[in-house]
Amino acid sequence: MIKNTVESHSAAPQLLKHSRSLCYALTNQMHLMSFKRSMNIVLSSLLTIALIASTHVYAQEQAALPPAHPFLIQNSLYPSVHFDAAQTDTTSLPVWESETKIVPSQVQWLPGVTTIGTVHRPYGNGEHAMFFSGGNRIGKIRITDHHFEIIDEVALPGREDDNMSTTEIRRIAKAMEANRDNEEEYLTAYRKFLNQTKQTSATVGNGTYTLMDKDGYYYAGWGTTVYKVGDVRPGDIHSPIEIVESYDVRDGVPADQRDKLSRIFGFAMTYDGHLAIAMPGIIAIMDRDFGEMQYILLGDEAVDNGISVDDQGGIYCVTSKYMRKVVWDGKTLSDKEEDGAWKSEYDYVPNPKALSRGSGNTPTLMGFGPNDDKLVVLADAGSKISVIAFWRDEVPDAFEQKPGTKSRRIADQLPLKIKVPATIEWSPHVYGNGVMMMASAWPDPVKQGDGKVSVFETVLTAGVTREAPVGAEKWSWDSTTKSFRSDWVADVPLQWALHPASAASNTVTLTLLEEGVYSLVHVDWDTGEAVGKLILGTSPIFNTAGGFFIPLSEDDIYITDVFGPVRISNKPSRATISHQE
Q: What is the pLDDT of residues 36-53, one digit of tens each?
């Protein structure tokens, strides 16, 4: 059994942001430990705890969030992948701070193929929907109040038959849950689902990177093609949906470059309403009707991650060779330094255990207040993985290049304390001057016949029949010393899933998967102290296969699930579609 610890290095006045007394902290810890395999919190200094008990600490104001985006769907809880254009994975909603175990009456499930791509669409008059994509389909779910029903789905051209009945999917999920101790039987059931729906490691990224524009059009990518989807009756939540337009990005490049483009990874909306797209060998921009495409060819540079954008035209993309900023001024896409663009090398040592070529995670922007340092953060791919920050704009005149870094553009890099066998594939969580990353490389992945990692099988066995990735670490940026410091470490086994940080609660949520039990543990952003735990259960429907937990309210969470969308609620719903039916 893996020992779970949190190591805290924060100064005493910063240790608790919500005026918790010592009595409450210890009571909360004991309550959490009553759960089997729960997370044990070990603070680094009892003296620090005693000091907190005698000191009244006031909650700080929320840190600045990314600027409001005028061209993404307005008033949305989740307008694009990773929650915003800066890719911060932070929500303004408070977390569900329960210390409880989910029961079937709190679970709604719509069985289907894996659908990681998701956007929340407010319709007005109190109506709300989720658009989703992945596998072979794009769909719309009404989520108003406790409703959770599919309004419509459209299949991708040529993939209409890549399906399985909901009844059969339910049977497979039950069979897998019953065989958690027998990997052969567990995977036999799962592979039947994968084979019939034609989902493989090569297709796992399809429909994942998505967004919705201010007019309610949903954009998603499959392979090298972008799809624009909208309501047949605009503004009507009950309207069916349709593919309005599609565009193969290869059609916009010279014939000798066409076959070099493979699949869309980066997908974002600039602050003037243009689509920015990145894939191996290219960064491109076009209008929302897929016209007037401009691009920058990257040669043999691979792009295996998403992209972020700022409100000044900066587009940030990490390749297998460089961290890049290209600039869109409303008319021209440029990679020239005189236009504000730049590129910097970073540490990269090829690793056969890594999924990505180069850095494994999406570049995430940090610093949105008027006096904040403007940075872009990721994990590098050196022999010792480090958190690394780059100056987004001009490098400060007085700043001197730090020893061991590849360029003066690098503001700081600090080796991780958590032990990771390869790259960090998860996008960083960024809130205020803090950044957190979770281990993602699998100690014992399932392999395909060619020796490559079988992604779907691996994410469903890690933490169930095989060892899960272990560890999360959080750092703070010190604007005075221009450096990172490590705040805390959590040695916990994790499923391949992401739950956002909460600006309202000053927390971040770890997605635990230990001995087949799925749970969410909310921890204080500053200290790593646990403030709540939600045990989901042992059903594989709580596995996101690399997707997201998206809060809809402090009592409601949408899950982009491996077997179709799931919703869990703090209050049982009469409309529940339980996985135990």
A: 333 333 333 322 322 223
